[in-house]
Structures are given as structure tokens and as C-alpha cells.
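Lab meeting prep.
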Amino acid sequence: MALGGPNPTPLDKLAAVRHTGVVRNRRAGLLFVAVVLSGACESPPIARWGVSADLEPLPSTRVDKPAATCAAGGEIRTARGCPGRRRLAAATAPTVEDGTGRASFTIPTALIGSSLILDRRWRPDGLSGWRHLPPLRIHRAESEETLDFPGIAQTSESTPEMRAHVWEIGPAEQTTVSAPFLIPEGSILTGGYAIHEAAHATGGSSVRFTVTLLVPEEGGTEESRFLLVDETLDGDSSDRWHDYRIALADWAGARASLLLRSEVLAEGRGSGVSPFSLPLWSTPQLLEPGGPRPNVLLVSLDTLRADALGAYGSAVGASPQLDRFADSAVVFNRAYTTFPTTTASHMSLFTGLYPAVHEVVAPFSGQLSPAIQTLAEALANAGYRTGAITENGMVARGSGFGRGFQTYREIVGDPNVLTVTPGESEQVVDLALSWLDERPHDAFFLFVHTYEVHAPYEPSPDDDIFEETWSESPTGRLAMWRDARNLYMGEVRYLDRQMGRLLEGLRQRGLDDSTIVVVSSDHGEQFGEHGGMSHGGGVFTEVAHVPLLLRLPDAKGAGRRIDSAVSLVDVAPTLLDLLGLPPLPHAQGRSLTPLLPEQEPPTAYTRVIFTENDTPRGVLAIQEGPDKWILGYERGPLMYDRNSDPGERRPLEGDVRRARGEELAARFRDHAETLRTRLEAQVVGEATAREATDQSKARDAADDERDLARERRLRALGYLE
């Protein structure tokens, strides 16, 4: 346990680094352990912090894996020590008996006799998603291991497919040393450590974690070591991240390095069982005092069409909390999605790019290009503490959404069914409020996403109270659409209460006046307006039009309404502009801050807005002023005058301005292709540069070795002393 004050812990157990040195306080000559500031300690006097340095490891440090994302206690972070997985070769064909599958796998020679953790998964056929089973621990692996796969339903058509992976395990003792860094006045060191959830779930060994500050002695080759953190986590019970927050006032102005060390312990395991665990270190950061900066809360309410809210004209009364919030916010009357699916539109929200450029349109469609920076990365680089609470798995961290988030928590009711998971907005709000309670006093960026009000529509009896009136007696499909719309509005009513809890929780924590709050949605929903249900195939207004509410600190601009058409690609550029931070390098969106000053009339944008849909025909909706074109639609090109036909029910006849729509579509596609090509070239160029750097380092190392060999020969011949 990290404590304040003197600590006589012997340092002979600490891993050796490049120098050996003495241990003493800079002033008193004693070992010093800095005070760790946690949620239970007194709040630090400085309310906002900026990143002075991400403490990256030196190339020579013994690190088995680069930083990646992995989880402890359901909380995902960028960390070192994240284990990779190696797929095991099948030794026998799988069988199923009484609902339990069984298959044998070949263990790699290097792992025979070792203690292993295995990841098991199965699927009914080659088209279905994988079902994950709890990890399995083998204490002493044989050359071939037979594994059980319980809960498999045998079908007459085929035998389910079964796979096993082994977690790649590092040595029992691991060290990481950071590059040297300067310690600013008033700075604070932050980071965390944990045991990977696979090791925790299988009763892994305990792990001792130590954080040591290495300060070189002036004018000498020795260094002083100061033990900052020393804590042992029980492998059987420690199922969460443990954070440290250390004031470095005693070393202000010094250049230092950081030594992170983990040691898997053997106590209580018996002579026949090897100690085994998966220790993790989240990336440490050195924070220095900075001026006050607003927090950011970005809320995405899945499938919420704009006109379901009273703030956008609904007379049903299902959204009193969000309507009250809109009264304190800037309301964008004409905000539109970029793509009517959860994954594609959210990636536009985070990158400021249309899906034609970022190309992440589904959770399994690939990862975001490393050349594209996200909003979370930009804010993390600026010193914001970043966290995300998401739902359903369509905003999957593996697609690139986790980049830049220090914590990323995904709630997935059934990991094998992504499209019909009921919303869990109550749990989402609970976790968001807990995250706010546990946060330190750094400026924060919190992303909150709930799958409410996506289908299936299952409001509680208390919320299933709506009976909307229709202009004709409902029969057949019309009755189905009406009933679905009524259930949907019941979901909106329930969601509204949960959003009221979140916003009230922000107020109760005294964060109202220091937080930018954005509430929006990824897309809307259709209920027969154009002959269909859901949202996947549409780009009409009921699907494309989304709410966009922006509340500034101290409610500046409250009640202001903006009529200019805007897009979800504008959200990230706007937030960075409001915070005075550099824009995302490749963003197609633009900052909306010129629309925000309280002046009459509001500044108007001359803007073209696009909504894509990758149906077989490649549907593209284009809005320019009151004109809207839909190209690639099955009924052929459509055009609407939204001034006289806001519901897009009466397409204009003939070729009215069709050429203009086709011109805008061609420009959009040409620009997207140019930008994609530029991003691809950047990735290739960076990879080539890294390869050249590696080759240069290898040549330098070889030159150094030759110089040393030449020196040894000359010394042996007596030419050098």
C-alpha cells in the first residue's frame, strides 16, 4: 500500500536499470515515499491540469508488449502488459455430447509444462458470431489438451466450430523505464495498475507493483531512487484498476525517469504450481498546473429522431427533462447525421469526417486509419482525463472508438446479438455518475452513449402511455406503424428521465458552470413516413434529422436557435475551437462557433450537407439551402423543396436542378477519394520512415560495435591505454 512519509522498504528487490545508485531524499538523505492522492484524500489545490509529458519507455527497456487496450473490472484502458492471444492448432475434430462440446488442441512446445490461461469460443456455423466462454486456466500444460465447451446446442446440419487461444504471458518480473523528463513546479504524476481480467477470473497469483522515481546525481553517474508506490494486489480478488496520483513538489526542476516494475508472487501457490498472472500498467502522465478549462460531456442518444422532443416540435410531452435542458442550451434546428447507422455516424462524430473517408461503417468493417486523429485523442493530448460509457457494442473500441480514452467501458447485454439489445440507459447513467465521482480534479471529457431508444421498443407500463392521433383509421401496416411509434415514444419518456438524472447529477457535483454539454443522436427512425420501418435504408428527414443541443458554461446563449444546416461532422471541430485547441488535421466538418455569438440575426452558413447510405445503389442525400437531392434511390433521383415540403413527401417533377445535385455528388466523391488517398499515403510514409529509422539505428549499433572492437584491438596492441 502506498503511504505518505518515510518508508523503510528495502530496495535490493527493485529491478536493476542502467545505473546503480544510492537511495536518499534530496534534502534529508532518506528514502522518501510521495503522498498518493486518491479519491479519499484531500483534493489538490489546483483544479485544472495540462499534460507536460506522456512518459514513454526507452527503446532499450525490457517491455514484452507495446501499449494496447485491455480491461480490468470491465474498464478498458491503454496499458502496457496487455497480453496478445495465440490461436492453438486443433489436434482432433470437435464433438458434442449432451450439450457439451469437446476438442483437443496442440500446445506449442515452448509452453509445455507452463501454467496457461486459455480463451475458448465457439459458433454454430461459419456465418454466426462467436460465443465466448469464461477463460480457463491449466496449471501444467501437456503437449495436447482436451477442452470442454459447455452450453452448445447440437444441430443436425453441422458440428459447431470450436477454437482456443492462449494468452501470451510475459516473465514473472517486468520493468519499464521512461525516457528522462523535466519535473515542472507543482506537477503531479498520475497512472494506474491492475491485473488483467483473464488472470483475475482464473485465480491468478498476486502481483507486487512498484513505481520508483530515478533522479541522477549532479555531476555523477549514480542516481537516487525514490519509491513512490508499493502495493501488492491479490490475484483472486483484485478486479479493478488502482490509480495513483503523486505530488512531485520535492523534485521540482529536476530531470528524472520513471521505473515501473511488476513482480508475480509465488506465496501460497505450492511447489507444484507456478506463479502466474497478467500485470498491467496504464500509461503514466506528468501533469503540470494550467489555467482553468471547461470540461466536456458528450451525450449520444441512439436512434432519437429530432421531432420526438418537445424542443423540436413534439406535442406528446415525452421529453420534459431534455426540453428543459434545451431551454438552457443553443438549439440547432437543422442538424443531420452523416450515415443512418450507429457505427458510421459515431465515427463521424469523433473524427469530423464523412464515412466515405473514415470508412468505418460497421463494427466489423475494419479499424480506423492510424492517420486519422479522433476527438478523444486530441483532448487526451491536451491533458484532459478521458472516459467513455458506451452500450451495445456497435461503438466498439476495436474499431477505433477506444483511441484516446483512458477508460472505455462497454455494456453489451448479449455479445452475440448486436442489433436487438435492449437499452440500458439506467446503468449507463449510474456508471457515468460514478466516473464523475471518481475522477480527479483534472479537466475531463466524458462520452456517454446509450442504445435507448433503439428497437426493440419495450417501455415499462408506466411509460407506455401514448396514443397518438392519426388522420385516418389505422389498418394493416398503418396500425403497425402507429403502435410502434407509440411504444417508441414510451421509450423516449423513460430515456428522458434518465437524462434528467445525468444532468441533475452534473449540477449536484457543482460542474454545471464549468462544463460544455452536447446532446445529440446518431440517426432517427422511420414509422411508415416513406413506406418503411427502422432506419438502415433511409436518408429521408425522419432518419437524417437529429437533435443537437449545445450548452455552454454558465448557460451562455441559452435559448438561442440556429437555423443554418449543420452536420455531426461539425461537433468535434466545434468543441476543439471552443476549448482553444488545434483542429483535427483532416476534418471535413467546420467549427460552428461563428453561429454562437448572441447577435441578431444569427450568422448564416452557406453550407452543403451530405448523408450517405451504402445500400447496393450507394444512396447519397445532399442538402443545399432549401433544396434536397436523393441520388441512388431505388425510385430514381429525387428532389425536394424543404421550405414548402419539410416532410419530403412531394418530390419535384422533371429535372428541376438535377444537374446541380449531380455536380455536388461528384464533388463530394472526388474530395473523399482525394482525402482517402492522402491518408493512405501518410500511413505508408510513416511506416517507411519508421523502417528507415530502425535500419538507421541498426546501422548505428553495428558501427558502434565495430568501433568498440577496433578499440579493443588497438588497446591489446598497446596503442591505447
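Slide two material, second protein:
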Amino acid sequence: MTDHSEHQDARNYRDVFSELDPHHELRNNPAMLGDEEAYRNLLAGDDHNVEELAAAAEKLLASRGTVDTPEAELDPHMLETLKALLADFDDQQMDSLERALAAYHDAYGEGGAVDDDDSMSAAETAAEARDFFSDYSGRIDIDTGEDAPDLGVYDDTAHPKEVLDDTPTAEDYAALAAVEAELNTRWGERKIAPDLDRMRKLMDMLGHPEQATPVIQVGGTNGKSSTARMIDSLLRAMGQRVGRTTSPHLQSPTERISVDGKPITPRRYVDVWEDIKPFVEMVDAWSEEQGGPRMTKFEVLTAMAYSCFADTPVDVVVAEVGMGGRWDATNVARAEVAVICPIALDHMDYLGGDIEQIAKEKAGIIKPTEGANTAHNPHGTVAVIAHQDPKVLHVLLEHAVDVDAVVARQGMEFEVSRQSSAVGGQLLSIQGLAASYEDIFIPLFGDHQAENAAVALAAVEAFYGAHTGRPLYEKAVHSGFAAAQSPGRLERVRNAPTVLLDAAHNPHGAKALARSLDKDFDFTRLVGVVAILEDKDARGILEALEPVLDKVIVTTNSSNRAMSVADLTELALQVFEERKVDSAPTLADAIELATVDAENIDDQGVMTGAGVVITGSVVTAGDARALFKKEPA
């Protein structure tokens, strides 16, 4: 491979996107509109009378945006903005708006469904109307003006838009368990065939669902799930309908396929599998004829996700890489934005024996732009790169230059500029690709989550083509981050004593956890409950946690790959003083033992201020969430 300079040959995001953007007239794009012009918020009627706003839109609609003085009174600047937007609408957009306004009047205007004997007040009517328009750009069916339903079960014998109760039943859970048993007969995520031939064959049979919508792909080693979830939350705050696929799951396999920020239902999961099953079996037969394996479980789950998102449909897909990158099943899609979270040593038996080899595999999600550039990335594929080891960064930039991708690097093109602790999380200021976004609250703890937030913001900016003078809509940025969740990542599941759980499963993640526990919490005593999988660097994890733990209770989890209590105890005794090590046969027993230890009362009858952290594996975090009766998320 040609040797490239790290800084001279990579196409820098700021330089590239300072050019005149030919797509700046895109509508419904928060990155392309200023605060007053944000179409979604304009139609929401924030701080304005919704009836007046609708009347103004109707008047402008009647003359295709050329009328000078509509009858309704409206703020002059807001009026001019509305006129300019409607004047640029094509006939299809005008027709859609006209239908939406008609539906508005059917519901709230004269002749509507409001009963005179039980009429709503003007304030109530305005509030409902505001709700009606608030999600117009992404959550309202523009052909009918009606609420676009989520993934529900439809009753074809009733009104075509009527959604029945989709609360999972016992039968749904039984069907989900049967599907999981069937999928578990395939190779699991620890046994892979490193190529995309089977996925490409299946996508071709299914009509290429992976091409149905733009994709943001999230790779790397640590922070992928949290970053993917924050990207998801930001996009939804912008009015987009988002499909997200992540792995592994904490509690339920349905978590792997999320729409509108929620896992799909067990019934939907079963239905998607049954829809693609005949095609999967055809690919199985084809592969076996070639001397290869059946499709792996992860390949099938990824295909289910892309199929589900195409059928829903969604506006954007956020796809978290499972392992590696170049030949990972998610990589059958061509991402407009490729996010590379911090890369560390992990899965070395598959990805390579050193950090550079691993980086080469993970760089494979940065692909060249093919065909005409899209409206979202007019300058080509964008690689958003988190803080990396210098050796890793060199490999990633080398690959980006080879495929002519635009590069945005944390610490150069974007960065966390200020960080402080806050109740329930932290307060950040982030210098993004387009602007500085101040006083952002995220309900997550840890420096690593602050860094993940900056990466997520840059990814969304890159997706929208935001650049200097065209930032993201700041209110949406604030609300998107405030709504972000990352279950199993320094998640508080109990108070008095405080019990936290974290899915750290390698030394890099354990070090980030230790730093957060030391910085963000003030425990007088901290007890760790640790269960680790046998193929992980258990000693490295324990060594990373040792400085912050006053006691460690080693145990096991529900995985058949879990390290035995005896073996983990032996390792713990090599890292911790003997008096600090205890063990328990099950995770539930270990949590009970740790909680009792943390609830000790001092001589003055005051609780000691101790805490408990449960960690060591994604499986451990998931098992703990279930024990604390947390719903899958």
C-alpha cells in the first residue's frame, strides 16, 4: 500500500465542506436551515397561534406562495420564512400539504369531529393541533395527514389505519423462543466465515433492502453501542424515523432491531424471520453446494434488520458493526457516513494479532462513493474518526485516502470543548464540524460518554452535510442528547445503596469504567461484582478495575462461554489482596452479597456511602438488568 502522509493527503472535512454546497435548498433538512427556518419547528407552531399559522399556510397555498398579505395575523419574519419555503415547494409537496391541511380542518375546524356538547377549549384545540403538526416532516403520513403508526398489527377488516393492541402475549414470547432456538442451530457470533458472499446473495434475492435508505455505520472496538444510540436519538430529534441495529443484545434479541428508538415487538421479530426464511434457506443450499457454511446467525439477524427497515419504512439506518468491519455482515450496505469509534485489542483470533491489523479490518467500512453523490453527502463518503492510537489513526487515514473519503477527526475537526458534572449526567460544550454547541446535557456518566457524544454529533452533522454557517438546529441537538439512553453502560439500577452496571468486557472498556467511577462518583467504599467470558482478557479487566474496587466478588453469568468461578477467583487472587476477594456461585448470589456489604452501618448508625458496580461482560450486564426487572430497551 502506498505510504501517505497522515495530514497532507486526507480530504479534510472543514476544507471540503467550506465549498458552496449545491444541495443547500434541501427542505426538511435541519442542517440546512437556521433556527427560524427549521421547517419541522415552523409547522409545530412553537410560540405561535396554530390556527393563524394554518390559515396563513392555506392562503399561501391557494396562490402557490405568491400572496402578499394573508388574512391571518402572523409575525412578519415567520411569515416571510413560510412564504419562501412554500414558494419552493414542487406540486407534489403542495398537494401533500393541502391534504394535511384538509385533515387538520376535518379534525379541528368547522364540521370536524368535535361535539358541540363536549367541545374543547381554544387552548385545548390549539394544543392538539400543535401535536398534529409537530412531527409533520417525519411522523405524519404526508399523503393523508394522519399520524404515521409505528410497527403494529393492522386489522384489515377495520379502518385501514387502525392499529390494534400489539402488547406481546404469551404466544408471542413462545414464538420468539422457538425462532431463537431455530436460529441458534446456526453458527453463533464466535464462529464466522469472513466474507460477504452469502449476505450479497441474500440481499439480491430480497431486492436489496440494504439500499432502501441512507446508512450511518458505526464500527470500532469500544463505545459503538452508546454512539449508535446517541446518533439515533439525535436523528429522531430532527424529525427522522430511524432504524437501528446493534449487537449483542442485553436481555432480548428484539433489542437488535429498533425502530423509533424502541425494540420491535416479539411478534414483528417472528414475522420478519418468517418472511425471509425461504430465501435464507436458498442461500444456505447455494453456500453448501460451494463447500461453504449455512448463513450464520449474525448474518440472518442483520438481514432481518435491513428487511424490517425497508418494510417499515425508515428514513435513516444506524448500523452497528458486529465484529471487524471489512467482512462484517452489516457492511453489505454502503454507508454514507462511516464512524470509527476507539479501536483496541479485541477478537484477536479473528481480526489479527496487533493493533494495526485490527485497524485495517475495521477501516473496511469506509468505502468509496459510487455513482452520483447523494444530497446528504454531496462531497462523498465521510469517515468520522474518534480519538485513536497514533498507529491506528495512520492506518485509518491511509485507507481513507485510498478510497478518497472525506475525513473528520476528533481532536482536529471536532472535539469536546467543555465538560462538567451535572445531576444525573454531565453538561458538555462540543465544537462540532459546523458550529459550537453549548450547554448540552447528556444523562450518561463518564469521560468516554462525552467523547462518544462528540463523535455522534459529528456523524449527524456529516450526514446532513452541515458546515460553517449551516449548523444543525440547536434545539433538536439539545433535545436529542437529553433523550439519549445507553442501557448497561454505567446504568444506575438501584439507590441506597447505589448499584451500577456496566458492560465493559475488555481492558480498554474497564479502564474507561474505572476512570468514570473515580471521577463521577464519591463512594466511601465500592464493591465490584465481576463475571467475564472465558475468551476475554480477564486478567486485564481485573487489573483495570483494581485501583477503584475495595472488594471484588467474582461469579459467573448465563453464557455457556462464561469463565468458571474457580478460574476467575484464581485470577482475582493474582491481582487483588486476598482479603479483598470473595466469590459466589451465581450472579444473583453475588449481587445479594455485595448489597449486604454495601449496606453496612457505621458506629453512628449511618450507612457507609458504599456502592456496587456489576461488570465484566455484556451478558453480565444483561443478566443484572433482568434481575433488577428492567425492560429491554
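Talking points for slide two:
The radius of gyration is 26 Å.
The first strand starts at residue 11 and ends at 12.
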